[in-house]
Amino acid sequence: MSELYNEYKQYLRLERNMAQNTLEAYLMDLKKLEDYLEKKVPGTPAERAKYEDLQAFIYDTFGTQSNWRTQARVIAGLHSFYRFLLYHRYRDDDPSELIETPRKEMHLPEVLSLDEINALVSAIDLSTPEGNRNRAIIEMLYGSGLRVSELVSLRLSDMYRAEGYMLIRGKGSKQRLVPISPEAEKWFAFWLQDRCHLNINPADVDIAFLNRRGGQLTRAMIFTIIRRLADKAGIQKTISPHTLRHSFATHLLQNGADLRIIQQLLGHEDITTTEIYTHVDIQDLRKAILKYHPANQN
How far is Cα 49 from Cα 210, in angstroms, rounded to an integer? Predict the structure, then answer.
């Protein structure tokens, strides 16, 4: 399948303009399907699989697990592959068309209070070589609502600091302009002074945030930085860089920002994705009842 595999890879990259992480996940899931078929239905390559083969693959892979995101991604990958085969006339049917994507799990994201954000910031040791960098990272994640992948790939050439904006390259290579908060700009300027003293790798000279060896930071390193700061600040919640993005959106909404504006800032294609931030803390509901319900006015 190597030739067909390479053609499909090019299709995802060029025709679908798919983000690299998603592309790699689709190809990895396709390899899993190939391995499964080799064991269960020897002699049946993925491009010749039947509906029953795909159904068995999904059931045997997930069983009764409720991991919605992983299941949805795998099924989306199957749909993509067999539509590619159909479109390019490698098949005259789509065996995946009757396979339904599991319903999305709706759950409220973990959000930090303003006090917890301040505690996180206060936990940064500014006397260390990474202090100003870490403060700038927190300010970018919380002050602009960036995804961690967007932060680590942010380029100096995409930052229009005089105008107060940066060009963010999001999922599927979609671009959006996002404001740089004054606080983020202040700490980023401090970090740039420290950055000048690094021995920067030539390939990463345009990358905004670097590690101590002058190379591009990884997403895993950002996770580690956030979790260490949370532990130091005594924050009991399980948080990640995405928690700061959730907090950014929630605090904007709580302070009166329009949902459509938040959608644009976050780079959400569908407004329904942004609507999860319309949740209201149960304590706010209780306070509203106590304050406004006539039965509590005496």
Answer: 46
- What are 163's two structure tokens? 């105008």
How far is CA 54 from each of CA 26, 34, 101, 220, 247, rounded to the nearest angstrom? 15, 11, 13, 33, 40
Q: Is the CB of residue 253 less than 8 Å from the CB of residue 278?
A: yes
73 catalytic residue (yes or no): no
- 1-41: pLDDT as tens digits: 578 888 999 999 888 888 888 899 999 999 999 999 999 99
Contact 166, 159 (CB under 8 A): yes
Q: Which of 16, 48, 155, 171 is catalytic?
A: 171
**How long is the chain?**
298
- In this prediction, residue 143 carries a pLDDT of 92
Nearest to residue 242, comparing CAs of 142, 139, 123? 142
Concerning whether 245 is annotated as a catalytic residue, the answer is yes
Global pTM reads: 0.61
